[in-house]
Records
---
Amino acid sequence: MIKRPIIIDTDPGVDDTIAIMLANADPSLDIKAITPVTGNVQYALTSRNALFLREYLDMDCKVGDGAHTPLFIENKDAGDIHGTGGMGGYRVPTPKKGFDGYAWDIIKEEAEKAGGELEIVTLGPLTNIAITFLRYPEIKPLIKRIVCMAGTGGTGNMNRYAEFNVWIDPEAADIVFKSGVPVTMCGLDGNDFCGITIDELNGYLEKVKGSKIEDLFSHIFKHFVKRRIAGGPEDCIQVINDAITMAYFIDGNLGKTRKCFVQVETKGTVCAGQTIVDFNGISKQEPNVDVLVWSDKKMFTDMLDKMIEFYKK
Ligand code: BDR
Ligand code: CA
């Protein structure tokens, strides 16, 4: 089987962790590198978590030292959502191995090596990718596609219209969306169809028993359950955005997209970080982004089940 060369750009993060577990379990992917970026928690923690995950999951890939801050604006995070340390309070041991170089240099090298076949999945703010394009614009034609967990064509989770990963670094998202590289945006609204209930989360806590990932996975799923019970009714829904994006990346049948013109509001006063999706072609601008408009929950949960089986072998 010819494997797809990919780089995972990420800010782990509880849902990033599940996404990386999914990618690592899929035989069709050849993960060349993980490139951490500041985001869910401060960079010292996202980068430590990325280094840790490589060891925890026995991954044979590089880890690249990425951006400590957004391009132009002050650093913020979502530590309250992802728990102490970014892993829902899981006590992350100090990784033994360090970085293999800078994120942008590794992305460039891998893009050149893959000769046009490299795909990038981004699960955090787009800062590392923007830096790569600013520093090495010549490699843009070598990137086959970027699939991002980013944005929303509907309502936001940081202000009324902005999604976290774009809100953290809107200028970076703007650079990437305008880059001419094929971009697929798996936003909050497209992912929402795959939300799972408290009962389903609890079901996974049973299923994962006896697998190699049991301790970390259960920790994260218990964190989801606790947060949801604290915040709403029993059956409210957990959308594991980064994992849904990775699942769609692995199997494109999981979602439907529409090619639209998308602009990033970089300087808004009430909606900075909004991804303005022109679903109706009103702007008359050339569409630049494939926008996920629907995703298949059954396929997503089947993939989670398959992933757990992989870690039981
Ligand atoms: C995104 O923001 C982060 O908190 C998650 O990891 C995900 O990438 C959802 O808005
Ligand atoms: Ca993330």
Note: The first helix runs from residue 14 to 25.
---
Amino acid sequence: MCGIIGYTGEKQAAPILIKGLSSLEYRGYDSTGLAVIDHKHSPYVLKAAGKLSNLKDSIGNKIPDGKIGLGHTRWATHGTPNKTNAHPHTDCTDDIIVVHNGIVENYLEIKKELIDKGHIFQSETDSECIPHLIEEYIKENNSFEAALTSTAKRLQGANAVVLISNNKPAQIAAFRIGYAGGIVIGYGENEMFLASDLAAILPHTRKVAYLSGNEIAFVSPEGPYYIELEGNPIKKSPSIVNYDPLSAAKGEFKHFMLKEIHEQPESMMNTFRGRVKFDRKAVELETLPYSDEEISEIERIVLIGMGTSLHAAMVGRIWIESLAGIPAEIDNSSEFRYREPILGPNTLVISVCQSGETADTLAAMSEASNKGAKQITLCNYPGTQTSRIAESTIQIRAGVEIGVAATKTFTNSLSNLYILALYLGFKRGNITQSYFQKAIEELAHVPAMIGSLVANQGQYVKLAQKYARYSNFLYLGRGINFPLAMEGALKLKEISYIHAEGYPAGEMKHGPISLIDENMPVVSLIPQDNLYEKMLSNISEVKARGGKIIAIATEGDQEVNAKTDNSLFIPKVSNLINPLLMAIPMQLIAYHMGVYRGCDVDQPRNLAKSVTVE
Ligand code: F6R
């Protein structure tokens, strides 16, 4: 959470910082701010509550001079999202200027100590104790470098800090402790960039290095040097980012979310490329580091994730049990990390984390590593923190996703889990060659089917006109479609602010059915699969109690059409791959409801794209 951008070089910093902030705004949009130094005047620091457009309005045409600077877009943790609490924060003398991502867990204790020493704080944030602490360590006759190492050692929690000093012309410093959001350092020609993620750096350079936990960087236009917390130098070689980030422009689309929904046929093809050999009907997962023998020794699989990624993992669990025949469990990363999970060398932990930065998933993965489990992760970006913990990464290759709600990263996580389950199943002899080959053949048609689903938006607009005024929705599914019901409800909540819950349809009679009346639309996921008849009975029970039913059914299903108030259809596919198609109506219902209600669908309130704090 929180987006950070820094620049030092020969160009004016402010326009570069503003452009960088616009590509980082999806990480948080409670407030924005920037600081530039020109060394003739005191530092120029400007902040605004709310979105970047407010900051741009306050700058107007008066672009501040200065070839070094920092920018920040905030997702508030401590202190209300107002202008005073916006970053950057400074010390008492306005010398040290800091932007921060993370939570300083011991900030109250540090703040009290600093106030006792005479420091005056302006904001309610935990972040502000950082510039004051650095100021204090410098006062104690420490060098700037030593003051930074002492500060980094003193802070508890997961934190990424980037700062400039009026006394250090052209130098940006940064440090990371724990698993806070990453820091990427971009190498240009006589200029350097620092950012919380690649999206802000790639328009300038593809040569990058990543700061790991407990490392400090000192970056000037001629290049960086790195030390670890004890002060010892570290050698770091930059690497070249080869993948092509999709254009961050909305193009013909009104919203990023809609653009990303439309990109799904292509992003799914990208994920198949090189892995699924449709001509030979084979799957090749060359990044999977396990021999056939090791695969046969896997006794148990534990899938973890948060939010939409957890829903993908829930589907993955069913695929793994059905196709690979391996006992599989699912856990929310934030729960997994705080219990005492029983793991060993024959347990494979699969984490789903498109950003590669989710704090809870990172902590859960560390727990799994410490306990000696095998570990692979699904991620959308190279070089992320999750990739560094896992033994192997499956890049889901969805391209950059700007809309805060996950759409194409969800379907790409699903398709990769399906390929993985097929692969493991075939290697372990749990599915026959002919089953395996038929499954691959069928997969080849899925991107085009998704294409036909996203092309047909009119019915969703009408649905929104009819239902957007309702305050509560239920989503019901069974079997492999239950996680999709959860996902549909999550999407509706976050995009349109309508309360929605996803339930296994069988659970209705155990309580939730008492909620049913004419004010409770029920989205029923009822494709013609092995649980179709059961779902039919469940929707009849809802109908009998006055509930309104929106069904997502298989094309041509007249029976469901006759029994429900509205029906939307997906193509007929085999039971197991229904979720790949079912995801699309879940996204489109939420999108059109949100748009109809005038919500900011790309940047829903209170959310951020990467959740780098617990
Ligand atoms: C919902 C959404 C979130 C994320 C969750 C995990 O639309 O985007 O629920 O799925 O924050 O994010 P990652 O996959 O980055 O771990």
Note: The first helix runs from residue 13 to 24.
